[in-house]
Write a structure and sequence with these properties.
Elements: E1 11-15, E2 21-30, E3 33-39, H1 49-73
Antiparallel strand pairs: 1-2, 2-3
């Protein structure tokens, strides 16, 4: 994991292996809460980790249910 220190108004850029550029700007910091602006191609999903984890759990549960359903039919 890379840790980058930024002040309000500063930003950093992430370049993907395919050459796409994602810009992250620190807009404000209040009471320990950071406000970020993220510029990325529209086809990229940007999710908070707790939402991404819930979606992943849902996919895993859905795949397990599908596997259980298909094995029960045999």
């Amino acid at each position: 994991m890379l840790v980058i220190a930024r002040k309000c108004g500063q930003s950093f850029t992430v370049e993907t292996p395919t050459g796409e550029v994602i810009e992250v700007h620190l807009r404000s910091l209040r009471n320990g809460v950071a406000s970020l602006a993220i510029g990325a191609p529209r086809d990229h999903r940007i999710l908070r980790n707790e939402i991404a984890k819930d979606l992943l759990r849902g996919r895993v549960a859905s795949k397990a249910k599908t596997a259980d359903d298909s094995s029960a039919r045999k």
